[in-house]
Design brief:
Number of strands of chain A: 6
Low-confidence stretches of chain A: 8-18
Protein name (chains A, B): Cytochrome P460
Largest interface: A-B, 42 and 42 residues
CATH architecture of chain A: 3-Layer(bba) Sandwich
Strand content of chain A: 25-35%
Oligomer: homodimer
CATH topology of chain A: Chalcone isomerase
Largest sheet of chain A: 6 strands, antiparallel
Pfam families (chains A, B): Cytochrome_P460 (PF16694)
Helix content of chain A: 10-25%
Number of domains of chain A: 1
Organism (chains A, B): Oryzomonas rubra
Strand order of the largest sheet of chain A: 1-2-3-4-5-6
Keywords (chains A, B): Signal
CATH class of chain A: Alpha Beta
Chain lengths: ~160, ~160
């Protein structure tokens, strides 16, 4: 009887982690975060050069720190930058709005684990297939290089929006 | 003793509703909703003509209906459209990002109360003073007129973003 119970617990544990196991994983080991569309808004942005319209969302740890003005962000902070193809609204062409999903990128704070890249781990997943970006773990040099000019803002381009 | 208790309860009730009483109110009676920056994302947008970058957020009722594809949205749905002045990012000028707060607008669903305007009540609050827009309750004709071309989408221009 005990063996059956143990076996059932083991089976349930595997079943419960199924969705996590199915998530795509970047070459540096960062798996796609689920639920990032339920995180709070950090800011919208529009990239003319790429034709992307974006939002950055943050998990509770990240948004609490950003709202409080805490820098650097604490370990456990995760930011998601979600990009869609920018399109003219069919009924209102002066408005640029999201079309097809383009990509989602994550910045994951762990000051020790990601010490070599400013305390941030990076990951990017492309298109509807959520294909992990990068041939090997060295891809983060590209991410980190681009973010280095904003080292004095904890390597973040995005500043959290404020409202009165 | 009973009178003192009653007086205390009355005082506490007034004190507790202080923040609600201080909220600006549109000429049609819709008060500014607090907490709309904690609501979930519906979509970002960029208005070239106005030089605004925006996000639309929705309360739980609205976002659940939009995600499920339920139209018209049920009573109790509230959408917030928040606009900031669009600026070039100082360290990355191909990115257009939010600057100063411009305005926040609300659409509030009550099929009976707002029957004359497609079931939606409208409100707009301008600038850091959150000054209510409109000289009298007739201002909603302007809102409704602009939204009429999208009557077949429950008067909503914004479609909720999707991710894989």
């Amino acid at each position: 009887m005990l063996r059956i119970v143990v076996a059932c617990i083991a089976l349930l544990a595997v079943a419960g982690s199924g969705s996590a196991m199915d998530r795509p994983v970047a070459p540096n080991g960062i798996a796609l975060y689920s639920g990032y569309m339920n995180w709070k808004v950090v800011a919208p942005s529009y990239r003319e050069d790429k034709g992307h319209i974006r939002i950055v969302t943050g998990n509770e740890i990240a948004v609490a720190a950003l709202r409080a003005g805490t820098k650097p962000l604490p370990d456990g902070s995760v930011l998601a930058k979600v990009a869609w193809k920018a399109e003219k609204h069919p009924s209102f062409p002066v408005a640029t709005v999201p079309g097809a999903f383009a990509q989602v990128e994550f910045m994951v704070k762990d000051a020790v684990k990601y010490k070599e890249t400013g305390g941030w781990g990076y990951a990017r997943f492309l298109g509807n297939e959520l294909k992990p970006y990068g041939k090997d773990a060295g891809f983060v040099k590209e991410c980190f290089g681009c973010h280095t000019p904003v080292a004095d803002n904890d390597y973040l381009f995005t500043r959290i929006v404020t409202v009165p």
